[in-house]
Amino acid sequence: MSQKFQEVINSERPVLIDFFATWCQPCKVQASVLTKVKENIGESARIMMLDVDQYPDIAAQIGVRGVPTLTVFKNGELLYKQSGVHDVNTLTDLLKQFSESI
């Protein structure tokens, strides 16, 4: 795993990572949902996107089998991993839950 990725997931703030592909239509839907989630959670958590075609090694190490797959890391620990499109409320609540345990 790249050093930059390790630095990101070792954050004390929860980090939601959207594993996506540019050719994936559901991934485009998920990206628009994440924009609204970011507005809801502000600075309490971080959201980033990782293209599985550009970083296949990282996706393989995390065990990503399909896109979109969302993961949440905090202090280097994988707290959540689920494939498929998620709605705004589910993700907002999930990140708030993980950020409250700082």
From TrEMBL:
<dbReference type="Pfam" id="PF00085">
    <property type="entry name" value="Thioredoxin"/>
</dbReference>
<keyword id="KW-0813">Transport</keyword>
<keyword id="KW-1015">Disulfide bond</keyword>
<keyword id="KW-0676">Redox-active center</keyword>
<feature type="domain" description="Thioredoxin">
    <location>
        <begin position="1"/>
        <end position="100"/>
    </location>
</feature>
<dbReference type="InterPro" id="IPR005746">
    <property type="entry name" value="Thioredoxin"/>
</dbReference>
<dbReference type="InterPro" id="IPR036249">
    <property type="entry name" value="Thioredoxin-like_sf"/>
</dbReference>
<protein>
    <recommendedName>
        <fullName>Thioredoxin</fullName>
    </recommendedName>
</protein>
<comment type="similarity">
    <text>Belongs to the thioredoxin family.</text>
</comment>
<keyword id="KW-0249">Electron transport</keyword>
<dbReference type="InterPro" id="IPR013766">
    <property type="entry name" value="Thioredoxin_domain"/>
</dbReference>
